[in-house]
UniProtKB/TrEMBL annotation:
Family statement drawn from the similarity comment of this UniProt entry: Belongs to the anti-sigma-factor antagonist family.
Pfam families: STAS
The organism of origin for this protein: Streptomyces kaempferi
Occurrences of domain STAS (ranges): 11-120
Gene3D superfamilies: STAS domain (3.30.750.24)
Protein name: Anti-sigma factor antagonist
Transmembrane region(s): none
Amino acid sequence: MRTNIIRNQALSISHHRLNGWTVFEVDGEFDAHTAPQVREAAIGLLDHGHRHFVLDLCFVPFLDSTALGAMVAISKQITAHQGSLRIACPSSRMRKVFEIGGLQQTFDFYDSPQDAAEQAPRTGAPAP
């Protein structure tokens, strides 16, 4: 069951469970204006016990350096809670932003949320 966290004109964030993963779906531009909302929503899920995340970017048409910073902050919080983060659906243009930001080796990328969640997360330790 998909649960909406934020839904407004600029951004929609929802989550659902898939094979032990929390699929965290962002729909809309992920930029300086929306990055704080995305970060707060992810941290809120962490505070409610979610540990292993698939960040679904399939519906994100634009990503900027502020969004990269938010993803790094989210990743650090997840790691501090012994969780893991995978990124689904980065377009070639989006991957270029990760590359320019020097983060292409930092994250695990998958073509879809289903691919990212194919293997259940390892409990008690971050997934490889």
